[in-house]
């Protein structure tokens, strides 16, 4: 993979002849995105370029500038558009879109919600995981997402190689993917929440984790697939498994992920079962490190926020899920101020139930305003959380979530036209999240369009939606 060396001009003004940076050689780029109303780079200086362009070569960003773009084999006209880094989804359970808006669980808080759905989820298999991942990742791509993680903690006995099934779905669609090999080991009979037939023994889980990393984890720059280890939550795994998973992640040099401090029930379970708050549990199991990113992080107190930041932990903020399950408002302004790498997650589609990362960015903006005042929750804050914040959670800062020369060419193009943008002439970034295109016009992953003109490039959508409908009816037992 070639990274074109780039030069940096004296400044980043919006002069027609000014270039912030560009390729040194004269060979045409593979693709340019040109004449953007604004390119919001989310780079270290947070530059925003009027009449901007982005050049892409060999899957990487080879130049960024303003005015006249360089020659290219293909061009996307982004007039009247905002161009941002592709959004990064730091927490999800893709298979859950098979049980969306399922009536028995729609009025339950977290624990009751989980226990009403486990009996359905235990029937997932490689086919349903492939199809649900394909559809879920397509939904994310349409909302401007270019990299997604997935927390796949459900591995019912005899269900097959589910992690490989979802990796194949991401590869077929062209999405950058961070699956996590999840696990559950504490069933109802041992004081946990899940039923007995979806948990496994610690040794079996750890062997499967190591195998998944060996087979799928790409350590290279620009990797399309990276694997992390992810015990489901304190209420579904043993303390010993938490400790041993952290040790394995250290030995394999991969990242760690789990649910953390999601709501009052979660706190109470921790006190009753482990004799401490979730934060102390995280620390005593060896998880309070910069290798870890957690999901939710709703209930840390002021002192715990400082400790999380000092340790370099990442946190995936899941605003819609936290609202639907009435879990609370995560203190993301305080977490960011303390140094926590706050990213954004759509969370599983049985608790969100939409999986639009744009929508989550808007929710993050609105909730920050509600909790910390109107000036705290800006569109630029939400854009940072949705891009560089997610990159921090996944350990890929400078590689994804930013438009800089040498970073991967993951780009979202957002149209700022039509009735919902009438009058929004002064600030394209605030307009993007306050007025709302709701979907990306173009989503480009590693230099390849996955969404063009608001439509998936793949021609398999109808086929996959048809298959998904049959699988969802089967799992919800509505196919009789
Ligand atoms: Zn979750």
Break the fold down into its secondary structure elements and pairings:
Elements: E1 6-8, E2 21-23, E3 29-40, E4 48-57, E5 60-66, E6 72-77, E7 81-85, E8 87-89, H1 110-121, H2 126-142, E9 145-152, H3 162-173, E10 176-183, H4 202-216, E11 228-231, H5 239-252, E12 256-260, H6 264-274, H7 278-284, E13 292-296, H8 302-311, E14 314-317, H9 319-324, H10 332-337, E15 341-344, H11 357-372, H12 379-393, E16 411-415, H13 428-434, E17 442-445, E18 448-452, E19 455-456, H14 461-475
Parallel strand pairs: 3-6, 3-7, 8-9, 9-10, 10-11, 12-13, 13-14, 14-15
Antiparallel strand pairs: 1-2, 3-4, 4-5, 7-16, 16-17, 17-18, 18-19
The site of zinc ion has 7 residues, from loops.
Task: Supply the key terms.
single chain, 480 residues, alpha/beta, 9-stranded mixed sheet, 4-stranded parallel sheet, 14 helices, globular, disordered N terminus, binds zinc ion
Give the overall pLDDT as a whole number: 92
Beta-strand percentage range: 15-25%
What ligands are attached or bound here?
zinc ion
- What would you call the shape? globular
Please report the total strand number as a whole number: 19
The biggest beta sheet, please? 9 strands, mixed
Distance between the termini: 52 Å
- Low-pLDDT windows of residues: 1-23
Radius of gyration, in Å, reads 22 Å
> DSSP helix count?
14
The structure class reads alpha/beta
Helical content (DSSP H or I, runs of 4+): 25-40%
